[in-house]
Amino acid sequence: MQFRYSMDMQQKYPHTLQRLIAHLRKLPSVGTRTAERFAFDLLKWNNPALSELAQLLIQLPSKIIHCTTCGCLTEEGTCPFCASSRDSASLCVLGSPRDVYAIEETRSFKGLYHIVEHLISPLDGRLASTLRVDRIIDRIQTHRTKEVILAFDSTLEGDATALFLKQQLTPLSISITRLAFGLPIGSNLEYIDTSTLARALSGRQIL
Question: Looking at domain 66-206, does it have CATH number 3.40.1360.10?
Answer without folding.
Answer: yes
